[in-house]
Amino acid sequence: MIAKKLPFLGLLYLVLGVSFFVFTSCDSEEVLVFDSKNLLTKDSKVVELMTQIAQNNIKNNNTELKSSQKSSTDCTSFKYPITFDAYYGDNPTPQQIVVNSDEELLQFFSTTLTAENPYYVLFPVSLVDADGTVTIVNSLEELESILQSSVDSCGLADSDGDGVSDADEDTNGDGDPTNDDTDGDGTPDYLDTDDDGDGIPTSDEDANGDDDPTNDDTDGDGTPDYLDNDDDGDGIPTSDEDTNGDGDPTNDDTDGDGTPDYSDMDDDGDGIPTSDEDTNGDGDPTNDDTDGDGIPNYSDDDSDGSNDNDDTTTGGCNTIFAKGDDSNSTCFLNDGFNRWGWSIGPLSQGEYSFDIYGGAGQCDTQKGDLVGVLKVSYQSDVVEVTYEANDGFVFNETHLYIGDAMYPTNNNGNATVAPGQFPHSHENLNGATSDSYTVTGMSGDAIYIIAHGAACYNGDSTSGD
């Protein structure tokens, strides 16, 4: 654990003409000298070098890694503890951070040291060579020089700054990283910030967040994600999981479960792994569209467009959406989304009743069943919504959006119709015949509603037209 010390320091002297601060403690004779030359900033070369050394030592000390996954050379290591101090504004008491391990050092760099909050390194700092020789370092300039030499000699240089050392980018193991080009784009991996060419920078394929992309393997196929053109092993190349076509697969999440499609083995959240939605068995799930609605099965949570699909459970269960009349309902497909359903509105204050359809692929109610009614009451700043099932149907879950815009937005600020992004939901209803919401704090002249859910056939149904 990183230790923080806040010693009471009584007297601050600013020595004019000399670029350092002197703090004198009332409790002891200790004098702390902070030379501005030893001020550590977030973007400094020393931070980069210290990070490379710490990561290498952590990797080599990891007993769970195979020998082939470790560095071939032991490099310089730090002799802990190392102390950092920050002095801000008129506060005469610096904040002191003491780190006691490589892990704590990386945590300090990632969470505490920021562009706005630089820290002084409290020298001397001790380094230990691979042969056990201890070197005492007394300045940031000296530390940078020694660490750079160590990084170079140990093959830890990272020419493209992607978090993978040049030595580790020698994937064929011939000692020459210049002839390794995973994506065949003409740029060797050690100079390529996206080694596998999947649209996700190598540094961003560090799924576990330990600043080391080499130990992240989402699909467990033995190939790290940064070298794997199909990270989740679902049969769809990572680059093709960029459904919104903005060149960034990290912001595409079809089922709204918080896991981007390229890392999600069930993209549409229908309970069927994406790789199993390759119904024609050609190894390519992108060309399988059972219901012919233009949406591949792996992205379609109603892949057969009927009321006996496999959306949420099995045995006569399907996705449902409420629909108004043609004057106040907009099909998602008309606005470029890749799923059926409707946004209802704008609705002024009053009482409303809307049909709820299940399995109406392509927003075609002829394909689905009329499973219930949605009742809406908008009075003052309060909206009350009730799902009521028709005879023969029950609800397993509901998701509701109410707002002054036609669609909600995801974490990136983009409009979405993924039910997982709707602000109101009731899961595990287990066969309820009704479900209600009361939403307060609404304002404005009109609102929009998207009412989604999952319903199951439970007897004699009332069929839609």
What does it look like?
With 465 residues, the protein is mainly β. Among the domains are: 3-154, no CATH class; 317-457, no CATH class. The chain has three helices and 21 strands. The protein has helices at 45-60, 102-112, 140-154, and strands spanning 3-5, 9-14, 20-25, 31-35, 39-40, 77-79, 82-86, 95-99, 119-121, 125-128, 134-137, 317-323, 329-331, 342-347, 350-358, 369-379, 382-389, 393-403, 424-426, 434-439, 447-457. The strands form four sheets. Strands 12, 13, 14, 15, 16, 17, 18, 19, 20 and 21 form a ten-stranded antiparallel sheet that branches. Helix 1 (45-60) packs antiparallel against helix 2 (102-112) and helix 1 (45-60) packs across helix 3 (140-154). The longest helix has 16 residues, at 45-60. The protein is elongated. Residues 5-33, 65-72, 306-315 and 460-465 have low confidence and may be disordered.
